[in-house]
Fold:
Amino acid sequence: MDPECARLLPALCDVLADPRQPVADDTCLEKLLDWFKAVTEAGSSLLLLQDHPCLVELLFHVLKPQDLSSRILSFVLRLAGIFAAQENCFQYLQQGELLPGLFGEPGPLGAAAWAAPSVRSGWIQGLHSLAQHPSALRFLADSGAVDTIFSLQGDPSLFVASAAGQLLVRVLDLALCGPAEGHISLQAWDWPACARKIVCHLEDCLRSEATPRVTQALHVLTTAFGHCHGLWTQGLWVQLSPLVARLLEKDPVPAPHALVDLLLSVARSSMLSSDPGLWETAAQTLSRLSPTQAGPLAAGILKLQDCPQALRIQAFGVLLQPLAFVLEATAQAPGMPGLLEGAAGDLMAVDTLPPSKSACVGLLCSALAHLELLQPLPQRPSPWPQAPLLAAVVAILRLCNGSAAPNSEAGGRLCAMLGGCVRVQRAALDFLGVLSQGLGPQELVTQVFAILLEYLVSPDSSPTVLKKAFQATLCWLLSSAAPPGCCDLEPYAQLVLGELLSVLRKRLCSPCWEVRDSGLEFLTQMTRHQGGQAGFRQALLASEVPELTRQLLQDPESYVRASAVAAVGQLSSWGLLAAPSSPEHAATPQKTPLEELLLVLTTDSEGFPRRAVMRVFTEWLRDGYADVAEDPERFVARVLQAASGDLDWEVRVQGLELALAFLEQLLGPCGPSAVAPPGALAQALQALCRVQLFEFAFRSLFDCDRPVAQKSCDLLLFLRAKAIPSSNSQEAGDGPDVTSVEAALRRWQAGEQGQPLGELAPEAVLAVLRSMDLEALQDTLAESSDHVERSPQSLLQDMLATVGVLGDNEADCY
Amino acid sequence: MCHVRMEQKTTAWKPSIWNNLGLSETLLAREYCLSGHPTLPCNVLKFKSTTIMLDCGLDMTSTLNFLPLPLVQSPRLSNLPGWSLKDGNAFLDKELKECSGHVFVDSVPEFCLPETELIDLSTVDVILISNYHCMMALPYITEHTGFTGTVYATEPTVQIGRLLMEELVNFIERVPKAQSASLWKNKDIQRLLPSPLKDAVEVSTWRRCYTMQEVNSALSKIQLVGYSQKIELFGAVQVTPLSSGYALGSSNWIIQSHYEKVSYVSGSSLLTTHPQPMDQASLKNSDVLILTGLTQIPTANPDSMVGEFCSNLALTVRNGGNVLVPCYPSGVIYDLLECLYQYIDSAGLSSIPFYFISPVANSSLEFSQIFAEWLCHNKQTKVYLPEPPFPHAELIQTNKLKHYPSIHGDFSNDFRQPCVVFTGHPSLRFGDVVHFMELWGKSSLNTVIFTEPDFSYLEALAPYQPLAMKCIYCPIDTRLNFIQVSKLLKEVQPLHVVCPEQYTQPPPAQSHRMDLMVDCQPPAMSYRRAEVLALPFKRRYEKIEIMPELADSLVPMEIKPGISLATVSAVLHTKDNKHVLQPPPRPTQPTGGKKRKRASDDIPDCKVLKPLLSGSIPVDQFVQTLEKHGFSDIKVEDTAKGHIVLLQEAETLIQIEEDSTHIICDDDEVLRVRLRDLVLKFLQKF
Structure:
């Protein structure tokens, strides 16, 4: 502890112990605890208490009958726990009978303060901290704390109840782990009394008819198997698994969610997953729980690396069941292979979906979401029923938009329940997008494109659904370009594209900005991937989409303008932004895309479009876009001039990014060594001076927004590495006089940014770079801006000051 | 006057009162359905001796069978070939013309009237109008059926209804057509015609449009009402209009007596558009809810359609094309103009002119601004700023929206393309729209956007085929959809729902869509054109007033806690559907029989009244009492209505039922009296 903190500590302890000076801010106490924890972890708690008797006094102070606030009481309980975590300090505190006074019957346990949840929570957390050594275990056993913890499991405060469960696990672990672990029997009846007591309690709970008690026990076990890896966990599972299995005999099965959590926790534990009984219980659970309850278990099982194949098949069946039902209910003619055939055989009867709309929608959405997560995993079930899954998703989407015409009664019911349901539509479209990685039979792929087009065309598609439909369409279009990336789209995809562009044309005129925005995003992505393909180029140029995109640069909504900027950037990169054909524009010379985007950068009132322009420009510079490559210097100069004056710090950061790209083009890419050859370097520096890159970079170095300064620092470091060999870095002998430059920089640092830098010669730049301690600046910038305020000293001062202010306010009130 | 509700639990009262009143005829309420069109209803409700016509809709889809009436000579239409039978017989070629495989009647368009034969319409006491679209048949009813009653409607309904009728008459009268076709209506000939003419119903009753004179006369019979205003009809029922949220001044109606309530829901909307929101709360506790005028396009969401409308409009105009919007002069057009007001600047369409062409365009735009009290809250508050409630005022001020009575005159000077034109009639058979269809139909740059849901757009376009212009169908129907209906019914919980048969099954084209029908418990009762429906409730109670002096003379006896009974001897006086119990005339003192009494002065025969009995006979205790009094061998049998106590020895049978007890014994009067007295011990007398 530094001396200044040590000096402040007694005053703070006085304040904390004084009920007339309430601490206004709970977070201060939390920070204080964090600090004490750090201090005790770094050194001896006993020494700390001996050096600072005020702390011991504070702890003892609580024992006196008085009107202390519950938050201080809770704080002291937790603080005592932190100190007592070290055995010698525990014994030191025990000598003064402090711990029984705090955690035993005479303490807050029996007092009125116990009614406050924060005190009960502090009590548990204090014990949790101190339960680290055998003495603590004896203390816990002798003080009767364990019984109190049992009762706190049912506490009305969920935080307290949950912490009580965790404390039980901690106590069990303490009792059964440690040096004697090797001798611990796998039979629970040989365990220490304290552990036996907890196990008996858990058994009682599992046998109980009251669901909340069962839930408590399951939560404790889930925590134990999830967090503890001692041998004893095996013994515990052996002891309790029959009781867990017996829960499945009840109707309904109590606490299904907690049960699922427990089984997954056991299955993931390397100590326990070898138990064949576990898989049997899991299998039974899958068949006993409703599809909605069993879904998370099934998904969890399928994500496991290692589990019996039969169980995996069963679990997959659970996830597929809702989709299989949909498929069956909407089947136009028998003969279509069912989803469950082959996957789960006839283990699961496809019977009914939940009767209520919300339950049915919830089940379908969760099944779709689980399958979506499963699809890309290497351990996903094999064979993956790609075709029936595609058929099922298409059927769901048809039910949602009302275009399905099922003959069966179940189909009719589904139609009524899913019609217009946005949640299901979104989940199904997400999954459909993921399924594009697997393709499928041509006939189904055609259906996929047909339903996607229906969604894109339908005026009833909500903006969020439309966005997902665009994303899924993109996935399918890209996956149907075969072989990937080098060939045109398949003929049917080409057909789809024609219709798609006509839809896109209309969507870009939508009165709803979200729709225009997702349309533009789709166009940008599509162009990025397909801009070089003849089929795509032809279709796009024949449509009015490029012209509409250009018009959207003037959209009233800034997000749309930003997306339009990105789209225009992509389109013109690929030469797809043809001059407008309408006669009214023919008279006036058309601006080039570069000019249009520069206009956005200099005039747009919102940050998003300007940031988008900077991204496009950086990309253009890197990719050698024709208009830029013509005269890159002029381009960079214009852009940097605009960016340096921008009020948005992200635009300025982007400006530096563009400057970096320019540097890399002149001096070669970032590399471990690679000092540029002198000739090239001189030319490059000349160019950099001409575009006034240094003025921008130096100015940014002292930018009030830290990311800008950091970026600039990185850029200058890169330049220095390229320009000045490391052996030469300290050499500042006969360089040019840079005092005026340095003076200007100092003034900038002081906040006088208006000061001009004047003409900079390359030599002067190099000299300034040599003289600047950029590394130190980088370190300073790397520290978060509140690093000064976060010191413990500052915390103590703040707390004392707040109390003082409170006092003043009181006086004012009189 | 004191009001006593005669809630008799004993059965003795009710039959006697009903019988005395001779009201058994009117116990049932009936509904006569005169229109087959669920959104253009015309029903007659007979309820408590009143005959009420609910709406007076005119089915104009019949006009789709006719050729359009062009404003200027159209060589294309006048050169269409005549239609001849398969055998080459061309006797109909003057009446029927063929265009792109469809056959049209070349005559003045005619309308399909509500049924006039089902009920004598001269007996209709009142007509209640729910919105301006549902009154278009009014002149046919009020001027040609001997109708002498009153029509009730709100002021905006009447004013805008007048505009719609005026526009209709104007559209048809300004293009006089000499020819009137009637040959094709002959049943034997009609059979030979191609569809849809072959299947057209009741063509013989189709009529030409009314005249302005008839319109004025019909409208003069309307009495204006305000929302929640209670109107007494002959003292028998009270009718009240409630806001229905669909259009300016649109109403639902409550028709109620003291103990029965019928709600008539016609053309309602829960969406926030320009009219006052729908009053749902007042519809609660209805015995019967008659549900008509739901959305015609249940699968189209009005918001999406407006979006679609705007996108297509912008797309066309940006390409240099013109947009034609066939529409009515009032209603959705206000909302469309408001959406466009917000949209045109953002879509860069500020320089595009919008034209609204209708003989009543000016009045419609101005009327909408003055009916502030009938508007939604937002628009009402604008009036106090003061600002015009609708933004189309600003569009007019800034010259973005211009309106003209017709294409002739000023319009031709101002006309600039590309442009957007709103004009009627949505059937595309008459009005200025015919001209624009002819003018713009040949170019694929132009677009016609259908927003009114009343006509099938494909049928409307049939006489213009082949057509190069793009056609977009964005029907905007803000009336209730089936999900909203189901919520509404859950909210207001009527005992019974009555609706057109079209609402009780999914649409024929989407037979699997079980969600596209009215779903309620008990299932809705349905009706169809020319059908009479007994409404599913019986009137049980009638309110009777008791004169104070008579009420004073009553001596109530408490027979159960909270329930008192009193016997009443009175004269029931009934006039104007009001019933009053008056004290009986005092018995005149005998005057020695010198004067001859007139028969009418006779005092009603007051028989000596036996005491009235009440209570019930507990069988077990009764049997015990019988045993106590020496009867043995008693057997009790349960029957459907009560019990039979058999005294086998005495060969006697006592039948105990809920409201009667019979002692059946063989002429043993002593025994009967003894038993009667034992029975009476268990009953109270008063």
